[in-house]
Amino acid sequence: MESSGVKSYRFGSVDYVVFLGMIVLSTSTGIYFGCIKKGKKKIEEVEPTLPTTVPERRKHDFGSEKMSEYLLGSRNLKVFPVAMSLIASYISGVTILGTTSEIYNYGTQYWFIAIAIVLQGIAVSYIYIPVFSALQVGSSYEYLEMRFHSVIRSIASFMFILDEILFLPFIVYVPAIALNQVSGINLHVIAVVIVIVCVFYTFVGGIKAVVHTDAWQVLVMFLSVLAVAALATYYANGLDVMFDDASKGGRIIFTNTNPSPYVRHTVWSVLIGGFSYWTSFNAVNQTMVQRYMSLPSLKKARASMAIFTIGVAAFVSVCCWVGLLIFEMYKDCDPLSAGLITHDDQLLPLFVVQSVGHIYGMPGLFIAGIFGAALSSLSVVLNSTSLVILEDIVRGCFKMQPSERASTILVKSTVIVLGLVALSLVFVLEQLSGILSICTSMTAIAAGTTFGLFTLGMLVPWANTVGTAVGGIASALLAGWISFGTQFTIAAGQLNSQKLPVSVEGCAANVTLPENVWVDEEQVFPLYRLSYHWINPIGVATVLVVGALVSLVTKPTNMKTLDPDLISPVIHRFLPKECFEGRNPQAQVHKNLLHTAS
Predict the structure, then answer these.
(1) Does the predicted model carry a pTM greater than 0.90?
(2) Domain locations in the chain as residue ranges
(3) Fold of the domain spanning 13-36+79-507+519-557
(4) Residue-wise pLDDT tens digits, 371-417
(5) Cα–Cα distance measured from residue 328 to residue 341, given in angstroms and rounded to the nearest whole number
(6) What is the b/e burial string over 392-431, where b = at least 16 CB atoms within 10 angstroms of the residue's CB?
(7) Cα(283)–Cα(229) distance, integer angstroms
């Protein structure tokens, strides 16, 4: 009976109004920042003004003021919209759907990720952002050329582009499946709408449109999940009963201190692995650094990071709470076993329909939230990747200096091409579901290795180009070996599922649980049994250890001639005083380039 109820559910008129309202707001934001506000600015510029502004930075304006405005908002954006855009950079529909099902299937130990998020916020603010702020980079990968060599920069840039292209299908496909299930709208129609709307406002308005659209999309997203959490809590049987049921079902886990690296979630794996993964993304990934650099000062960049940290920790906590509510509702009838859903990512949409679907506008608000998360994440990828292709590939790798018109054509055509790639990958993904796990592995490898390169440069003063290259290659090979080996082992059915037990006793239809076939994991190579949390820290540690040791053996960098701006402030006390005395002509060249006539 429940199954047919879900399948026959369709949007009401109120839901459509809420949902379409968000699409209209997205496109109108792009038009406003791309056409109307730009027009106003041009009128204001006609009035004569004194030359009080800082002259253009030859190295970091992407070849023209117009491109700097389009890609970095002329480094003059406001803290709150940028903080919301940072949240949008990381929180996608995948995060919302994945976190809730993680709690339902594996218990509350994952909730410790909120602590890891707070710790990474402190680390990013005081170790990494000050370096980018001092150098005033346009692209984070410029740092790798300043610190090491243009080859390191080019490799990291290509890894970023590949990483983002592989991330595109996640952003579009996973929310599209969820929306399809709740609304009944064709999956392909949803994917096309997401891509067209997103490409339009990113194409027209640049980073200003992206940041300001992200700001209210994140608010809608937060409001929708908060509303679902509040209403579902209100309709639940009481908090005492809920916690009692969750405890009986083995879902309340906060003190699993098992030292085994093979257990999916322990205090150590979630804190260490979560900290490493979140820091690797938020400290050096271009999607984040581009937003820090769009703010006028280090103080404002740190303020936006603080808002981001608090906002994301709170948002993930709400998603974890909803995961417990889902368990309370389905403790006696697991939807996956009962055939109500075909994938864990459909768990939350089903819960929304069955728990608060009767309230006018609620499904529409929830869909608008998931849709907004997809739009905001996609727009961030389009905007950042187009910047990296212009600055790091065309200008950095190929040493070309395109005109303002050529740069504009390149950047905007990149946005359109990436949109088409996202759409085509959705169709590929639909036919080859196994490719999703391959994409996951590739993104994990790229994130850990790239973060290791930056950390080596900023925290290990003697690191040189050879050490960095060897460390990066060793890290990518080791992380790739573990990641792909694990995927093949899972596909071959050689690992036991660590999902907690579920029940089907309360199902309306006659449902039997599938038998769990136990396999002896001792026969599996140890590295292939590791919890996924450990892959990122292993990749980062490999770059640091191998890079530092090889650098020591192969003529380490002379610390007396090192530009201190290239090293994190937390290491400055350990640097020789010659660094800070302006005796280094190379450092002076960097400063002259970066602070011309400032």
Answers:
(1) no
(2) 13-36+79-507+519-557
(3) Sodium/glucose cotransporter (1.20.1730)
(4) 888 888 899 899 999 999 999 999 999 999 898 899 999 999 999 99
(5) 17
(6) bbbbbbeeeebeeeebbebbbebbeebbeebbebbeebee
(7) 31
